């Protein structure tokens, strides 16, 4: 199996897509970007005709599938749309990739498939425990991916990511909200009192994991956790951003956004497997990543 040369990147206009596309290009790979609009090939992944006939006729040898509905509250309000996009969009891509006999199909999943952890740190062989429709959609899509690997011999990889941050982040995510509040001197909103604990890490670390999964044949058929291996509470994260920006913003204690989030979530991955199999190491630490992100938001 040869190394990939041209990558089809779905969800290319999103936070991770913008950063990953740039990272892959700088790594010497050619990137074909697809999204609903403003990309190289525009279209809807839930449209089988678009995926099989339009995307399928493009020139690429590997797929990195990022596109999807990512909002937990929206998935609760409208589970059908969540499943249509996240599950059937993925199914269309898998069928196209299988027919095209691509070198690699990387599915970007989420640590949400584990739900409330029964033990920490979480390992790849821990059981699914989804809570929201978004979580369930990632579980279903993972099963689709594993089925195509088993039944169609599609060379797949599943990456379960923890909480990324960086330039172009989703405005409603914690890090950009905290940075904007600190820069403008507004209160820093802490839903559920900032009690949740997560592995929060800079997006370039995930991009590095993707490049390893694309190039290393040992990745095929495997599932990997991706994170930094360190955890931090939302409250501690807010305090660190406040310190780094020298802000006088006050911490504002808020209720949970949804009833599902009333019980504080503590989650962190074991990254031992991706370190052992792919040689992964985080390339940007938390403080360095926050510094880069704060500088980006001040400039933009």
On the 0 to 100 scale, the average pLDDT is 96
The rounded distance between the terminal residues' Cα atoms is 42 Å
Spatially, the strands of the biggest sheet line up as: 3-2-1-4-5-6-11
What does the radius of gyration come to?
19 Å
Low-pLDDT windows of residues? none
The major pleated sheet works out as: 7 strands, parallel
> Helical stretch count?
10
What's the β-strand tally? 13
Helical percent range? 40-55%
- Helix and strand composition category: alpha/beta
Q: Please tell me what the overall shape is.
A: globular
Element string (H = helix, E = strand): EHEEHEHHEHEEHEEEHEEHEHH
Quote the beta fraction. 15-25%
């Amino acid at each position: 199996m040869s190394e990939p040369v041209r990558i089809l990147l779905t969800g290319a206009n999103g936070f991770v897509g913008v950063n990953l596309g740039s990272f892959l290009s700088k790594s010497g790979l050619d990137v074909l970007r697809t999204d609903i609009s403003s990309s190289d090939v525009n279209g809807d992944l839930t449209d089988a005709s678009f995926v099989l006939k339009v995307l399928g006729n493009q020139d690429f040898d590997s797929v990195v599938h990022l596109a999807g509905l990512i909002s937990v509250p929206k998935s609760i309000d409208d589970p059908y749309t969540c499943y249509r996009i996240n599950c059937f969009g993925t199914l269309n891509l898998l069928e196209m990739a299988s027919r095209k006999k691509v070198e690699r199909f990387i599915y970007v999943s989420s640590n949400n498939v584990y739900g409330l952890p029964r033990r920490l740190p979480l390992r790849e062989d821990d059981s699914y425990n989804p809570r929201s429709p978004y979580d369930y959609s990632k579980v279903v899509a993972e099963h689709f991916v594993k089925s195509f690997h088993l039944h169609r011999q599609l060379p797949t990889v599943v990456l379960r990511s923890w909480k990324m941050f960086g330039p172009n982040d989703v405005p409603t995510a914690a890090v950009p909200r905290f940075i904007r509040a600190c820069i403008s001197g507004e209160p820093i909103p802490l839903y559920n009192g900032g009690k949740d604990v997560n592995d929060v890490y800079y997006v370039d670390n995930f991009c590095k994991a993707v490049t390893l999964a694309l190039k290393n044949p040992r990745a095929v058929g495997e599932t990997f956790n991706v994170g930094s291996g360190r955890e931090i509470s939302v409250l501690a994260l807010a305090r660190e951003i406040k310190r780094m920006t020298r802000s006088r913003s006050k911490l504002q204690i808020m209720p949970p956004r949804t009833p599902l989030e009333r019980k504080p979530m503590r989650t962190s991955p074991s990254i031992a497997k991706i370190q052992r199999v792919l040689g992964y190491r985080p390339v940007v630490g938390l403080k360095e990543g926050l510094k880069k992100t704060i500088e980006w938001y001040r400039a933009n």
